[in-house]
Every structure is written in C-alpha cells, then in structure tokens.
Write a structure and sequence with these properties.
By secondary structure, this protein is α+β, with helices and mostly antiparallel strands. The chain has a domain of 378 residues. 57% of the residues lie in helices and 10% in strands. Strands 3-2-4-1-5 form a 5-stranded antiparallel beta sheet. It has a 5-stranded antiparallel beta sheet with strand order 10-9-11-8-12, with helices on both faces. Strands 6-7 form a two-stranded antiparallel sheet. The longest helix has 26 residues. The two termini are 31 Å apart.
Length: 589
C-alpha cells in the first residue's frame, strides 16, 4: 500500500504539471505496476482491452463521422441565418444544439465546431466573443452528462462498475439528473455569465473587419526610435488607413490598445492597413519590419500580402509537446509563426524553443491554400480567416442513422455498447462516411492511453487493500452525519480532483473507494458512483481541468482569473444541485 501510494502521488504530480506527454505517464504507470509486482502482467495491460477504452475509442470515431458529414456545420449555418437580439437570446439559440450534440458526440469535437460559429454570430450582432465561448464550453459539459455515451467518464464508470460485478448503467439512466443539471446550470449560464464575463475581443475577430486589399503585419519599435514617448494617436492619428490591432509589451498582449497609450522601446505592434500605407510607414523609419519563426530560425517578414490567422492546438494534436522549430511549418507550407498565446500571456521571444501545449493559440502568417492545408491536417483549429474543413453533407443522413441505431440498440440492451459502437464504426467506413485516415486521426491517444494506464491503477488499489482502507476512513468520518454528507463528500472530492487532473483519472481513483464504502455499509453503490460521475464532469473553475475549457481560452481572449470568477460559483451551484437530487433519485438506504 505504501508503494502504491507513492506511485499514485507521482502520477498525480505528473498529470497536474505535465512535464511530459500524458501517453508517457500512462506507459510508465503500466510498466511500474507490472515490474514492481503490484499487478501481474495481464492485469497491468488489461486497460488496453477494457470495454471502456474500446468504447471511448469507437465513440470518438463515430463523432468524427458526424463531423465529416457536416452535421454541426449545417446547424451552424442555420443558426447564423436566424441569430437575432442580444446575448441572452443568442446563448439560448446556441445552447440547444450544443447540449443536444454533446449528449451523443465527443464534447471536444462539438466545441471545436461551435467556436467558428460563435465568432461569426458575435460579429453579426456586435457581441464580444468572450460573452459566448465559456458558456458554450459549460453547456457542452452539461449536455455530456445526459447519456451514457455523453462523456468518456460516464462510459468508464459504467465499465468499472460492471467489472466489479455490478449491473452497470443504462443508456439514459443518467438523463434524469443530467437534464436537471442542464436546466439549472444552463439557466445560470444564460442569465448570469454574460454579466460576469469580461468584454474582450480575440485578435482574429479584430482582423476580420479589415477591408478588401488591407493586410495585417507585425512591426517593432527599436531602441532610439522617434516614436518612443509619443501616444498612438499622435503616430497613427493622421493616417486613418493604418489601425493598431494589438500592442505587445513585455510579452503581455493588449488587444485594441487605447489611442492615448504611450509607445515604448521594444513595443511590438500588429497593424492593419493597405500595402501602400504600410510600406510608407516602414520607409519613414521609427518602426522596423517584424519577424516570424521559420522552422529553426527567426526571419524578417518579407511580404505583407500574407493572411494572418489564429490557430488553436487541439487536445489530440501531434504538435503537442513539440518545439515550434520542430513543426516544419515554413519548410512544408511556407507558414511563419509570429507569436503564441498561452493562458492569457503572449509569448513573442524564444518561440523556437517553446513546447506547445493543448489550447495554445498560434498567430500564423501565410498564403490561403497552405493555411487551408494545415486545417485539413487536423492538428490545429483555425479560428477565422480560412474556409473550414471540407465536409460531405450527402453522407449526413447515413452518419446520423448509424449513430441513432447504435444508441437505440444499446438502450434496448440488444448487445453491449462496445460491440455496437464498433459495428457503427465499420458501417461508417463501409458507407464512405469515414476513411481509414479519418479513423486514425479521430483517436485521441492522450485519452486512450490515460484510460489504459488508470484502469489497472484502480485494480491495484483494490488488490492491495488501499481502496478498502480509504473507504473505511471515509465511512468513519461521514457515517454519523447520514447519507447526504457522504454523497456530498464524494462529489466534492471528485470535483476538486478533476480541476487539476483529468476527469477520467479522478473517476478511476474514486470508483474503487466508492465500491468499498458501499460494501462496508451494505448499501447500493449507485448513488456514490453517480456522485463520482457528475463530480468528474463538474470542471468549471480552471481552463486546464476540462479540454473544452482549454480550447475556448485563446479564441475568447480569456485570462485564468476569468474561469475562477465564473467557475467557482458554477461549481458551488452544481454541488448543491447534486447533493439535493442524487439521494432523491437514487436513495442510498
């Protein structure tokens, strides 16, 4: 138990700080469990063949089939035509399809597709995108709690429960509490979040307003420049054809800086104007042409007729943990990297050595077709400025029909969900909804390897007796206060843990403890497992606890404190909701 406790502590630290890829942590965990004798070789490797891992893999592929068929793109176009009114009406309009799709598709894919839709709608109605994107992430989380296949955590808890000899959960067994979650949380999102969130505009949206023939480029103010000490309105006030979109100072980005901002040496300005006016500004002196990372070196930008776009690193991107200089974007596609925004901070220097993380926003400059090719590769999500990935709407009825059939047959208990999901993947490939390359691209190695590593860790907790010891301590503490406090404690612990590690890791650690508590008290474990399932999805207070929160941070121009400001009240509200309704729907005794 001491050895396992040390291994769990090291694993949690590595998952929180992420000095290496999640896949490496998972493989190291599997090897350590087997080599130390905590588990036999077959048990240590059992996570790869566990129904939860295989089901999650198949559902990721089914989601990709719907995405490629253009189902969500069609809905986005439909919404864009009907968007009216203020931010409250727009949030309701966006929330309905987001919650519906999230109940049956991978949340990450839904949010990735809804980000461009939200930016388009916010531009149409003159609403800051920061008022929309965190709400969309939260709504997708609520939607995912409504069905067994809504999130990987639901599938995982069901599988672990069945593995322990329990009956598992039905397709719509979560729906009662899930719908309450959606209504309570959705009402808070729609009515309160727009008032609490800041009004910020992402750089991509500032650039969207540029006129035909206008370009965006980077210029630098060198030491000794005649511009130092002067206000922006003095420098650019006489030439209305040049607009300052962003000022970067000491790696801090200031979007749409006030016109009375005083220019300082080493300031970097992102300006928009015609080729003629930008050229005239450069020849006058005072500023010098900006630079971009061209693979392994920084080079001066030689053209100003290139498009500039923001690209978000997706959670399953092969660019993760690679250095900028290793991407080969300039060599392969002629694309330069101007800057990187991470957790609200703008990085401009030493970009070549910077390792990329999920949710990082790259400011790229290149021609339209190479940027489109980069989008097609699926490693990044281009927020604005380039057409979206090619879709095949003629396949949409087939893709929808296949998913509906999988859900209906699983709900009727015709066959295990894992077999039905694999059959669905086969049908999508057979009917041309997906190709083999799309299937392999849809598999998220971080999620799948983490499941494969954490599942045997749960087995080790049971076999070593550690889960039983922890369960006994929890029972001793909470038994005098009744079932309400026990459920509240389990939910709160899960919710806090999932803010700093993944939701799946939190679930795997707590499921064996809950089963031990139920055995010691002689009660039904379902209420406790429900508390773990919903607590693991209640990640609102940080941008790193849930993948969709990470994805919206850059496009919305959010800072870390923005998530704390709205997420902590949301966590408290959902904690109270779960504590009240779980014992009513699933009595503990």
């Amino acid at each position: 138990m001491i050895l396992l406790s040390i291994l769990m502590g090291v694993t949690l630290v590595l998952l929180i700080w992420q000095p290496v890829r999640i896949e490496i942590v998972a493989l190291g965990l599997i090897a350590t469990l087997g080599l130390t004798g905590l588990l036999g070789a077959a048990e240590a490797l059992s996570g790869f063949s566990n129904p939860a891992t295989l089901t999650v893999a198949a559902m990721l592929v089914l989601s990709a089939g719907l995405e490629r068929a253009g189902v969500v793109d069609y809905v986005g176009g439909f919404l864009a035509q009907r968007a009216r009114g203020g931010v409250t009406g727009l949030l309701i309009l966006v929330a309905v399809p987001t919650a519906l799709f999230s109940a049956f598709m991978n949340n990450t894919a839904i949010v990735a597709l809804m980000i461009p839709v939200a930016l388009t709608l916010s531009r149409q109605l003159g609403i800051a995108p920061s008022k929309l994107l965190i709400p969309i992430s939260y709504i997708s989380i609520f939607g995912g709690t409504c069905t067994l296949i809504g999130t990987s955590t639901n599938i995982l808890v069901d599988s672990l429960y069945r593995q322990a000899g329990g009956p598992g959960f039905g397709m719509f067994e979560f729906s009662g509490l899930g719908l309450i979650y959606l209504l309570v949380g959705g009402a808070f999102v729609v009515l309160m979040l727009p008032r609490m969130l800041p009004k910020r505009t992402a750089l991509a949206q500032l650039m969207e307003g540029q006129e035909q023939g206008h370009f965006v480029t980077e210029v630098c103010v060198p030491e000794g420049s005649s511009l130092v000490g002067r206000q922006l309105k003095e420098v650019f006030g006489t030439d209305k054809e040049i607009r300052v979109l962003e000022l970067i100072r000491d790696e801090e980005a200031r979007l749409g800086p006030p016109r009375d901002t005083v220019v300082e040496a080493n300031d970097i300005l992102l300006v928009e104007g015609t080729a003629r006016t930008i050229h005239k500004m450069l020849t006058k002196g005072g500023v010098v042409q900006g630079t971009a990372v061209s693979d392994r070196e920084r080079v001066t930008i030689s053209r100003i007729d290139l498009r500039m776009v923001e690209a978000v690193i997706t959670p399953n991107s092969r660019f993760l943990h690679q250095k900028v200089q290793e991407l080969g974007l300039s060599r392969r596609l002629g694309i330069g990297v101007l800057a990187i925004r991470r957790l609200g901070r703008h990085h401009q220097y030493n970009l070549r050595e910077l390792q990329l993380h999920s949710g990082d926003v790259l400011l790229l400059q290149g021609e339209r077709e190479p940027l489109r090719s980069l989008q097609e590769e699926g490693e990044v999500l281009l927020i604005e400025g380039v057409e979206q990935t090619l879709t095949f709407p003629r396949k949409a009825p087939l893709a929808i029909g296949i998913l509906v059939a999988v859900v209906a047959l699983a709900a009727a208990n015709v066959a295990p969900i894992v077999l039905l999901a694999f059959a669905g993947v086969g049908l999508m490939m057979l009917t041309g909804c997906l190709t083999l390359s799309h299937v392999t691209r849809a598999l998220d190695p971080g999620v799948l390897f983490l499941l494969a590593g954490m599942i045997p860790l749960g087995l080790a907790m049971e076999s070593s007796g550690l889960a039983g010891v922890i369960a006994g301590r929890v029972v001793d503490f909470s038994e005098p206060y009744g079932p309400l406090v026990l459920i509240a404690a389990i939910y709160l612990l899960t919710s806090l843990l999932t803010e700093v590690v993944s939701n799946n890791a939190a679930a795997v650690l707590l499921v064996p403890i809950c089963l031990g508590i139920a055995a010691e008290l002689g009660v039904d474990p379902k209420p406790l497992l429900i508390a773990v399932t919903f607590g693991a999805s209640a990640s609102f207070a940080t941008p790193i606890g849930y993948q969709t929160n990470t994805m919206v941070m850059g496009p919305g121009g959010y800072l870390f404190r923005d998530f704390l400001k709205v997420g902590i009240p949301m966590n408290v509200l959902m904690f109270l909701t779960a504590t009240v309704f779980i014992p009513l729907i699933w009595p503990l005794w």
